[in-house]
Specification:
binds uridine-5'-diphosphate; two-stranded parallel sheet; transmembrane helix; 2 domains; UDP-glucuronate decarboxylase; signal-anchor; Rossmann fold; 7-stranded parallel sheet; globular; 328 residues; UDP-galactose 4-epimerase, domain 1; NAD
Length: 328
Amino acid sequence: MKRTLITGAAGFLGSHLCDRFIAEGHEVFAMDNLITGDLKNIEHLFPLENFTFYNHDVTNFVHVPGKLDYILHFASPASPIDYLKIPIQTLKVGALGTHNLLGLAKEKGARFMIASTSEIYGDPLVHPQTEEYYGNVNTIGPRGVYDEAKRFQESITMAYHRFHGLDTRIVRIFNTYGPRMRLNDGRVIPAFMGQALRGEDLTVFGDGSQTRSFCYVDDEIEGIYRLLMSDYTHPVNIGNPNEITIKDFAEEIIKLTGTDQKIIYKPLPKDDPMQRQPDITKAKEILGWEPKVGREEGMRKTFEYFKGLSKEDLEKTEHRDFTTHNKK
Ligand code: UDP
């Protein structure tokens, strides 16, 4: 039986990865310190014999007894609200956490994958973004703690690959959505869905002309799994190239949810990327992967999930601190 360690296991992507690796017959060691993760996302796995949960902060020394075949480092705050609230932890989990886990991978002879991100491209000047683009990142802006941690994570992973011969994979994840997103993480999809369900107006930041390209979680997990199982060691974009402006997206959500609320406009957060779309030529060629779930179907499934949350969960919302925003 393959033995696989997944960090950030109680989070959105981490919990879906746990499900996938359990389904593939692995023994899964799930690690999370629950700062942003939620045990509800993985509690259905606790009765399984081949599932073990460690409540551990990977910025401290990490130990897992016995052999490990795969390590997937998916622990990190992943929303602009979180970066502002816990900036030091965001830097530490990307830097110190990655270093600890690389050490563990080396010790165990395990294949190592890091969750990188489209944020390493910053506010991109090249469109769509190919893996060859070096990015346009403000190191000292509010997103810098995440973007630079992720850039460092890629560098140290390649250093272990080149210097120690470690078997490594780097996935650059673009905006992904689906069930188990945290309702109060401030990102656009949970924000809009929460607002629609609470009967509030939808808050579009800036004039809404900025674009994103949203990938349904099942597609994302399939791409990640294929990359891990491939022999390709350079970064690969995994995301859905179907691009939309945030204003048009808000209108889609109003239609989907049937809310009679309207759009209201708020200041654009500082360093908010104006456009984002993955070039997935590499993923297509190397992994034979491309997304299959369209936005309408994916959003419908996601809305079903949010509709199922308790009233109490729905009220636990947080609002962005606009003091760090650009005046626009
Ligand atoms: N956004 C918005 N209203 C919200 C939350 C986000 O208009 O209530 C915008 C945000 O400014 C950004 C886009 O939606 O342009 C996506 O934001 P998110 O935080 O989901 O992810 P990002 O891709 O910026 O990391």
